[in-house]
């Protein structure tokens, strides 16, 4: 978010969209939902936390804090996740802290996640970490991510299934330093006058008018899929008052031999269209269109696209199920208007900060 009067916000939004599209093009990032074939474990709550207060902010890497429980490296405090670490305590040094901080969580996993190492895939997903992060599981680095606003995940099956019975210890090193390449951008200024500042003293220069919140900002979850799974679902819609067409494309990872069936249900659970295959089109008669709030007496109407996959792997029949909520709508942009379902839409309610005083 940027403040009213902050320059370049439209450009930043376009860049974020391009980053999201680029990430989605690399591989699917379906939101983790519980289904008949998928389980989900929430990791929100209190995590162990420690800020690296060494002059170079590098003690955590030099001493390899990720190789042992974080409490063995020195004093830790409880830190809620998701939250902004610099908005929790009454410690001014932590509120204004710039550099590496460390989080840790130990999770006990269901035994069924650990026994079937051929057909069960376990994924660790972070919704958002600001801004640069490195993640270890049981001391093994599993992912690295730059850019605080987007989700990222990694398959950790081989690590946790190689040592069943051992708690899954998740360690995150997070750096909230702003650079010319972060959103929002910033820079570090080192103060070299030894008569006024101690060695390695620096300040974070910013060009915006809001507080630089940092931390693990969105939920952290573990979830499972079969080893052959639905990786991504892309849906586009066209519609009129009497008929709508729902185009879909489904990608599957883990095998090239699979069968896909699809069912589109309305909000009452009634099946209104069916299909099969990895790409196609569903026809919906007399559709309930998706409308923004205040533009229709029944705004936000959603259908539910259930995708079922069956595949052979390792001598077993695997099934994966994923249900994607979708809205049927058309969007057009003219030189003067933004049209939803052919009617002009007026944008309002943007650029209001979470720390605004009204």
UniProtKB/TrEMBL annotation:
Signal keyword on record: yes
SUPFAM superfamilies: (Trans)glycosidases, beta-Galactosidase/glucuronidase domain, Galactose-binding domain-like
Major subcellular site: other
Leader sequence segment: 1-26
Coiled coil: none
Keywords: Glycosidase, Hydrolase, Lysosome, Signal
Record-linked InterPro entries: Beta-gal/glucu_dom_sf (IPR036156), Galactose-bd-like_sf (IPR008979), GH (IPR017853), Glyco_hydro_2 (IPR006101), Glyco_hydro_2_cat (IPR006103), Glyco_hydro_2_N (IPR006104), Ig-like_fold (IPR013783), Ig-like_GH2 (IPR006102)
Entry superkingdom: Eukaryota
GO cellular component, one term: extracellular space
Domain Glycoside hydrolase family 2 catalytic: 332-357
Alphabetized Pfam families for the sequence: Glyco_hydro_2, Glyco_hydro_2_C, Glyco_hydro_2_N
Domain Glycoside hydrolase family 2 immunoglobulin-like beta-sandwich: 228-329
This enzyme's EC code(s): 3.2.1.31
Subcellular location(s) per record: Lysosome
Family the UniProt entry places it in: Belongs to the glycosyl hydrolase 2 family.
PANTHER family: BETA-GLUCURONIDASE
UniProt protein name: Beta-glucuronidase
Organism in which the protein naturally occurs: Geococcyx californianus (Greater roadrunner)
Record gene name: Gusb_0
């Amino acid at each position: 978010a940027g403040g009213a009067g902050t320059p370049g916000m439209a450009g930043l939004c376009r860049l974020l969209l391009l980053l999201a599209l680029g990430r989605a093009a690399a591989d699917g990032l379906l939101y983790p939902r519980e289904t008949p074939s998928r389980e989900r474990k929430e990791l929100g709550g209190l995590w162990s936390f420690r800020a690296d207060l060494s002059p170079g902010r590098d003690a955590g890497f030099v001493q390899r804090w990720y190789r042992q429980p974080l409490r063995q490296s020195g004093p830790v405090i409880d830190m809620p996740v998701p939250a902004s670490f610099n908005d929790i305590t009454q410690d001014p040094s932590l509120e204004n802290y710039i550099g590496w901080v460390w989080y840790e969580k130990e999770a006990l996993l269901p035994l069924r996640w650990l026994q079937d190492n051929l057909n069960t895939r376990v994924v660790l997903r972070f919704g958002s970490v600001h801004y640069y992060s490195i993640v270890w599981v049981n001391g093994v680095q599993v992912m690295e991510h730059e850019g605080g606003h987007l989700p990222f995940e990694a398959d950790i099956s081989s690590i946790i299934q190689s040592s069943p019975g051992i708690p899954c210890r998740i360690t995150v090193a997070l750096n909230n330093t702003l650079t010319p390449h972060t959103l929002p951008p910033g820079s570090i200024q080192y103060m070299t006058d030894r008569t006024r500042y101690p060695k390695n003293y620096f300040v974070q220069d910013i060009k915006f008018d809001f507080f630089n919140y940092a931390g693990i900002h969105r939920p952290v979850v573990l979830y499972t899929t079969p080893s052959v799974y639905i990786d991504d679902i892309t849906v586009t819609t066209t519609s009129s008052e009497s008929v709508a067409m729902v185009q879909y494309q489904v990608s599957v990872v883990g095998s090239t031999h699979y069968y896909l069936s699809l069912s589109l249900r309305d909000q009452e659970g009634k099946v209104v269209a069916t299909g099969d295959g990895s790409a196609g089109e569903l026809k919906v008669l007399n559709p309930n269109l998706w409308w923004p709030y205040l533009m229709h007496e029944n705004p936000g109407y959603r259908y539910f696209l259930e995708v079922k996959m069956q595949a052979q792997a390792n001598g077993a029949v695997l099934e994966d199920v994923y249900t994607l909520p979708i809205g049927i709508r058309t969007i057009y942009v003219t030189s003067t208007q933004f049209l939803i379902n052919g009617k002009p839409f007026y944008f309002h309610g943007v650029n209001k900060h979470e720390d605004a005083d009204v």
